[in-house]
Amino acid sequence: MRFMFVGDSMTIGRAGDYTWRYRMWQHLSATLGGSFEIVGPRSALYDTGDDTATSQAYAAPDFPAHARRHLAGWGEGWQHMAPLIGPAAGAARADVLLVSLGLIDLGFYTKADETAANVRRFVAAVREARPAVRMVFLPVIPNVRAEEDEPFASEVARFNELLAKAVADLTTDASPILLAARPEAYEIHHDTYDGTHPNASGEHRLAGEFAAVLHQAWGIGGPYRPAPHTPSNTP
Questions:
Q1: Which of 9, 61, 133, 176 is deepest in the core (most CB within 10 A)?
Q2: Strands (DSSP E) along the chain, which ranges?
């Protein structure tokens, strides 16, 4: 089974991060053994010291190169991934997409309705390349801008409603789509290092939501049990 992580800055991570991708790889390794593969056209982190550069400076020395693959980008959202996902998923023969997108779209590029339209473009594009692909979408999670900016918070709430509708409309027996839950008790002052990007506890919460829906709906993996404590190098 081939998994592809798709996302924005919260998924790619920055130089020195562990990333929720690492936490998810640990979980899949513990519950699936060697019967899975992480796929995608990229493997790097975002280099905060140079906007044009990338980094392989992962905080976890045991995160192997083959498990670092993804399709995520700092500042990239649904509108950026919609034209990329078909070729990427087709080339990698992805079976399951774990997708965390939306915040960057609503924050910088598109309102809720247009963002939801890009979700539908994304689904159509990946199914053209991989008709039997399975997908799990994470809603936009709590963030500092939504806490401080009421109009933005309203757009987030509307998009999450539209995302749930898109999942209900578009899921099929051949290519099912699941909607993960917003992480319960996610606290931006505890689970992020800047009000948006997850720290160690936030990474576990995000990985845990993907793991829970995979296990409960499709019997993939098992309950999420974080690996022994890994120190965080983020504040």
A1: 133
A2: 2-7, 37-38, 45-46, 54-55, 71-72, 96-100, 134-138, 177-179
User: What contacts 95, CB < 8 A, 6 or more positions away?
Assistant: 1, 2, 3, 130, 132, 133, 134
Q: Give the domain range for residue 49.
A: 2-218
Q: Is residue 164 part of a domain?
A: yes
Please report whether residue 67 resides in a domain.
yes
Cα–Cα separations (whole angstroms), residue 160 to 154, 164, 182, 197: 10, 6, 10, 19
Cβ-count burial 130-159 (b if 16+ within 10 Å, e if not): beebbbbbbbbbbbeebeeeeebbebbebb
pLDDT given for residue 154 in this prediction: 97
Whole-angstrom CA distances from 224 to 28, 137, 175, 205, 231 are 9, 17, 24, 9, 19
pLDDT digits (tens, 9 = 90+) for 130-181: 999 999 999 999 999 999 999 999 999 999 999 999 999 999 999 999 999 9
Give domain status of residue 120, yes or no.
Answer: yes
To which residue do tokens 């950026």 refer? 80
Is it the case that residue 233 has pLDDT exceeding 80? no
CATH number of the domain enclosing 64: 3.40.50.1110
Integer Cα distance of 46 and 53 in angstroms: 7
The answer as to whether 225 is a domain residue is no
pTM: 0.95
Mean pLDDT of 122-136: 98
Measured CA to CA, the distance from residue 7 to residue 233 in angstroms comes to 22
Number of structural domains found in the chain: 1
Rounded to 10 degrees, the C-alpha dihedral 224/90/108/192 comes to 20
